[in-house]
Write a structure and sequence with these properties.
The complex is a heterotrimer of chains A (392), B (339) and C (350).
Chain A lengths: L21 E2 L2 E2 L1 H4 L3 H10 L2 H18 L1 H4 L20 E4 L2 E14 L6 E24 L3 E10 L1 H5 L16 H37 L1 H16 L2 H10 L7 H32 L2 H8 L4 H37 L11 H7 L3 H6 L5 H23 L6
Antiparallel strand pairs in A: 1-2, 3-4, 4-5, 5-6
Chain B lengths: L7 E16 L4 E17 L3 E5 L6 H8 L7 E8 L3 E4 L5 H8 L2 E4 L13 H11 L6 H13 L16 H13 L5 E5 L7 H18 L2 E6 L2 H7 L2 E6 L2 E7 H6 L4 H8 L40 H5 L5 E4 L2 E3 L14
Parallel strand pairs in B: 3-8, 3-9, 6-7, 7-8
Antiparallel strand pairs in B: 1-2, 1-4, 4-5, 9-10, 10-12, 11-12
Chain C lengths: L5 E14 L2 E14 L3 E5 L6 H9 L6 E13 L5 E5 L8 H6 L4 E4 L13 H12 L4 H14 L5 H5 L8 H13 L5 E5 L7 H18 L2 E6 L2 H7 L2 E6 L2 E7 H6 L4 H9 L50 E2 L5 E2 L6 H13 L1
Parallel strand pairs in C: 3-8, 3-9, 6-7, 7-8
Antiparallel strand pairs in C: 1-2, 1-4, 4-5, 9-10, 10-12, 11-12
Helix pairs in contact in C: 3-4, 3-6, 4-6, 6-7
The chains are: A alpha+beta (392), B alpha/beta (339), C alpha/beta (350).
Chain lengths: 392, 339, 350
Amino acid sequence: MSLLSRPAGNKKVPIPVPEEKLKEGTPKEQVFVASQWQLMWWRFRKHHLAILGTSLIAVFYLLAIFCEFLSPYDPNAFERRYTFVPPQAIHFFHEGVWEGPFIYGLERARDPETYLITYQPDTEVRYPVEFFVQGDSYKMWGLLESSRHLFGLSSDVNARGLRIYLLGTDRLGRDMFSRVLYGARISLSIGLIGVFLSFVIGIFMGGISGYFGGMPDLIIQRIIEFLRSIPTIPLWMGLSAALPRDWSSLQRYFAIVLLLSLIGWTGLARVVRGRFLAVREEDYVTAALLQNASEARIILRHMLPSFFSYIIASLTLAIPGMILGETSLSFLGLGLRPPIISWGVLLQEAQNLQTVALAPWLLIPAIFVVIAILSFNFMGDGLRDAADPYKR
Amino acid sequence: MAEPNGNVILEVQDLKKHFPIKRGFLNKVVGQVKAVDGVSFQVPTGTTLGLVGESGCGKTTTSRCILRAISPTGGKVLFHDEKLGVVDVVTADKATLRQLRLNMQLIFQDPFSSLNPRMTLLDIVGEPLIINRVARGRAVEERVAELLARVGLRPEYMRRYPHAFSGGQRQRIGIARALALNPRLVVADEPVSALDVSIQAQTLNLLQDLQAEFNLSYIFVAHDLSVVQHISDNVAVMYVGRLVEYATNEELFFNPKHPYTEALLSSVRRPDPLSKRERIVLEGDVPDPSHPPTGCYFHPRCRYAKDICQSETPPLLEVSPGHMAACHFATELTLQGVG
Amino acid sequence: MANDEILLDVKGLKTQFALEEGTVRAVDGVDFTVKRGKTLCVVGESGCGKSVTARAILGIVPSPGKVVDGQMLFYKEDENGSVRPIDLATLRPNGQEIRSIRGAEISMVFQEPMTSFSPVYKIGHQIREPILIHQQVSKAEAREIAIDMLRRCGLPRPERVFDQYPWELSGGMRQRAMIARALVCRPSLLIADEPTTALDVTTETQILELMKELQDELGMAILFITHDLGVVAEVAEEVIVMYLGKVVERADVISLFYEAKHPYTQALLRSIPTISKERRHRLDTIEGMVPDPYNVPSGCPFHPRCPAFMPGICDVIEPPIYALEKGHLARCHLYNEELVGNVMDEPASS
């Protein structure tokens, strides 16, 4: 924003100032004493898509964290009589009269021509949706035993084998809604853990590269270039095919995370190195050196804070890649396998054309993937724009 | 000019800084840029040495080498310390260097890049105090308040971040930081060239007041000759990494002995539309320091050049007492000063 | 004093930037005239609106800035020699008409020679471009014109320079090439926005000499924008001094330097160091800082820093322009005898 094209001396940094902080057009003391994070937040707040993305991500992670409680059923519980049930609608009015949330009964019929089972709502019977109901028992985070669910049908209706299927059921009659929630837990945590691992490797390698320069830098840069030149999908396929077949689901889960971050760190290392090199040239770093500041102090107090926000932004932008990586691997049958539930695993079951034609709701996990990826990208964009409130 | 007690605070002897030119996949060294190539001068205590030259002449590199912000390739930088005696900054070990840096500080050109935008004034100005264990806790705040007040900023501002201040005010913050440890020598690298005219005058006055108050010695690096003439006692002129002339202020500006100095002086613009003096318009550009000309580096642009200038490098010799010039014809030429 | 002397007549020009911090009145009612073949200097400190004024003339005010008011009459000469005024302020910013003027009738030289050429095209290509746009000539003829102009601008071996890339030239050479590009269509007005600020003193001397020679040769008028009073003294015939978006003083160059009327100009002149034998005096300064452009003081914008500040007048009433002798204009209450008289009386009565 060199709008007045003034000589360098008076070029004021365009600091994002929220309107309530402005009194008669002048920034108040509050703005002058605002720290980096406050300035970043003021700028981030202006990015509406980023705020939307962040809220959606927050919702998704809440769903994933409390999936046992939020899902009405055990994701692996199946109901033979109700396979390929389409999503059921929740109604509030019956013939124009308020009834509170309820669902209609399911009428099961066989198509006389195709011999396929079809389901029709039975408007004669109504089952009210209740909250905090008793249902399948579970162990919250493997610790707290409980059988309370946020919503469901009353226990006597449950006992009669009737269910509420918000997103329909799959070929074994399992509740897709519960499965999507449990899948979110795996898929979203893979993104986080994977990015965390890449972050650790990336900041370490990038830090060495940027701070020491010379030979270590040369070697690390060549390694990064090599890793980045390998096509990722075949590499992942090769590596995951090499995983022993008899590994438990948990082992497999961590192995996949490790695989993803093995490639993911390269981008981050480059960001860290680039920032290191840029900040090292800043005069204030020279000033600290001339005041006898130790290397640790220069790095921790002067250099790290100045690119920490950049790292957070690139981390956020790296998460979607991880999620997509897991989804693609599992979809191809090379990543996670049942009984673990992830969005990729769910999509794998929707792989053949027949199910897609007959039960399109099995593709709903893909919508969740798309929304999650977009949200992360919006949030990352917002963070990146806000990352350096002092940029001139 | 005046040398109080004849005391010298800094002697620079044959200072050299060569940057390797690296090319290719494995960074092979293919040449040298002689950014600073054999510079010598002295700074008497309590005086200001003006270091002038055009961009790329090595004046900034020289200033960084003196403080060992970058390590020189060769030569000596002798600092006369009250406690340690005469110490060579170039070869000093870490502990000695730490001691030395309490006495030598730097003021930067860019008032934006020189202050960490993520730290408050208290942190910026107080940092040298804390690092060097000069003060802690409340004492830091008191000292910072005192320093801010001294450079003309309100002490209440110490909780603010640099983004609250204009270029001129930021430069004052930088000066306060440099003064925090009571240094004896301050290297000022183009401290006013990024500032507006009216702010420039305020800053120059402040620097002069501080010099008088704390008996500071300055090395004042600048390209603006009027500013240098205003503030310096002695002046050194650099051209392509070498010193071409070194003299007292008055000698250099009114009785120059090097043709390059003459050309520089003739290009000084005065705020007076009626003083239409003849300007010496130099041909061509400053040479590339990685491929300098033979002999005297200035000969391709010099209007007095003779054959010898092409083949032989003129040494820096004393033309008259205290006046050094690196020109084969320094004693023969009659050159035009200012006025 | 014939009217046909005037090339550009700017009246009441106002430019505003709607920013998050508030509306910046970068140019707030500026009047001036540029005469044919003469040099007018616009001088002022950073943020005074001098660059925005120049850009407004060409219709290239950077976003979110807008010309909101005023007239900019450009007296364009036709092929048959008759002169007709065009109001540049009313032209669409990217319309046909402004584009036929930009680069042909009015052209501009920028401060930063590094970024004003595109690094991916050869110098020759970029200099030939305006010729091909504005004149009916073949590429070969355009090449000849371009090389001729490069030669006039003092570039050694212009045929070679024609086929070089901008980054192959030094700063001074690039600025010469920049001037060649600006002058290649023989404009009647050259706007030079701090053309020598980024250059070394000896190179600055070269460029200023060159501009003077070319003006004598080609007869264009120059609107020279600078913050350096030393440069003003050397190149200007007439000068306007700007402060916070307003013209505070206008005079011919000699009156300005010898009989400055506005306290701001006077203070500015006193605050620059000049080379003299009796040194070591303190510089006179202007107190305080240039105010934030979105927080312009009331009344006369200079009053908080003014040594001749008259309380109750300068901070309340915005001073109009006063016409003094020899076409000298100053925007200062000191030249209103009534007001000054009252102030003089007041302390005596209290």
